[in-house]
Write a structure and sequence with these properties.
The complex is a heterodimer of chains A (143) and B (402). In chain A, 42% of the residues lie in helices and 19% in strands. Chain A is an alpha+beta fold. In chain B, the strands form 4 sheets. A 7-stranded mixed beta sheet of chain B has the order 2-8-7-6-5-3-4, with helices on both faces. In chain B, strands 11-12-15-14 form a 4-stranded antiparallel beta sheet, covered by helices on one side. In chain B, strands 1-13 form a two-stranded parallel ribbon. The chains are: A alpha+beta (143), B alpha/beta (402).
Amino acid sequence: MNNLEILYRQVIMDHYKNPRNKGLINDPTYKTVHIKNPSCGDDITIQSKIEGNIVKDVRHEGTGCSICCSSASVLSETLKGKTKEDAMIISKNYLNMLSNKEYDENVELDEAIVYQGVRKFPARIKCASIAWKAFEGTVEESE
Amino acid sequence: MDPYQMRKDFPVLNDETLVYLDTAASSLKPRKVLEAMDEYYEKYGVNVHRGVYNISYIATSKYEEAREKVSDFINASFEEIIFTRGASSALNLVASSYGLNNLTKDDEIIVSELEHHSQVLPWQNVSNITGAKLVYIPLNKEGRITIENFKKVLNSKTKIVAINYVSNVMGYVSPLKEMISLAHDFGALVSVDAAQAAPHMVVDVKDLDCDFLAFSGHKMLGPTGIGILYGKRDLLNTMPPVEFGGDMNDNVDLYSASWKDAPYKFETGTPPIAEAIGLGAAIEYINEIGLENIHNHEFMLKEYTIKKMKELKDITIYNETSETGIISFNVNGVHPHDAITFFDGDNICMRAGHHCAQLVIKWLKVVATLRVSFYVYNTIEDCDKFIESLKNARDFFKSVGF
């Protein structure tokens, strides 16, 4: 497989074509963060509902390239049901993995591991990051 | 002109596999420009207009010689050329100095959806502050500004027409000369964004009779950080400065001060000296080739590429009839940011996105577009490599399920 084929893995295409947990919920117990990349037009909104210490639900809505949109869907499946602390650890590790920084390989990234391929495309790191950064924003807001 | 010979002048093109199709964002820079800037830093890299010593005199002469070259380049007078940070700050200067001080709520400002953000946003700001009404020329089916539609919005309330010479997304040339004459009949001034025109075609401010005209150095083989505002002398002299400080003043008292004449009252602080000198060298390089030759070469490459693109299925072109070297398009069903990664893999540099012109992207009803733009160093082989990559990109994205 060449780098491009690695980037556009089946998992990514599947989440792009059939996004999970898509659509926002009008409920004040959800925290909402919207991030836009004005240079390319990626536009993502992430909602999370944290109850007790558990990420009960993650929703997303937006437009953008396949990497950006699929990553929001993958994020929602990966983090739902995790504790708040675990979710933040996974997110930090995921973002560090993308930008070729040191990260803890023992942290289970689940399906999000397929975004490893993005490392070979520095110009696309932002596409794969903004949903996760928005998620971190929702957690900060809930604190 | 011989693009194959000229390519040797551009150090970035030492990488022979590189296909550079993003001049509309920024052009490559020839060695001559880099050398002119190096010479300043190595031999007389000191301040201008201030030091009373030999090398400061040389620096000042070279800086002002560059102004002379710019004024000749667009058929203006020396005092009508203001050095700015770029076309954006030049267009902002017009809005901040002329617009904020002369417009009121009863006035109208005409713009279009084809404008770059640097032309429309400063006037949006003037409109918000003064209450003057922002009016858009309806674009025709192709997305062009037409005289017929311009007449629909032009009236005695119009005070400013802020318009592009060449659209950075569609590559269309606006019918400026007639528009300017019509605007003047109503007493309105015309401020022209020539960032995509000055590098590619003859711009003559006297022939156009425009009141203001702006362009950037880095899109025309020059360095970044330098741009030009042309303004008619009488207008510039009635306009207040927007930045205050060293070099722009005449006499300074405790509670008041007076200003130098244009252009100096608009150039406070130490200017981009090396950049102005570099721009002068870029203009010399362009003059040696000739703007008509440049325009014909780009148009030939654009026509050739469009013809090849039309033979391919699943490609949408948005500006087939453009008169310049800009092509905006998409691969059907593929987000431009996905597509661009494929081209990047083939070492082809081009643009994907809004191109700092969200209004026309919205007018086109697309999320973003891909854009190819040509210049002196591009060849038929560049076009062929692009077409080959475009075919492969389309097939690849289909194969992975787009």
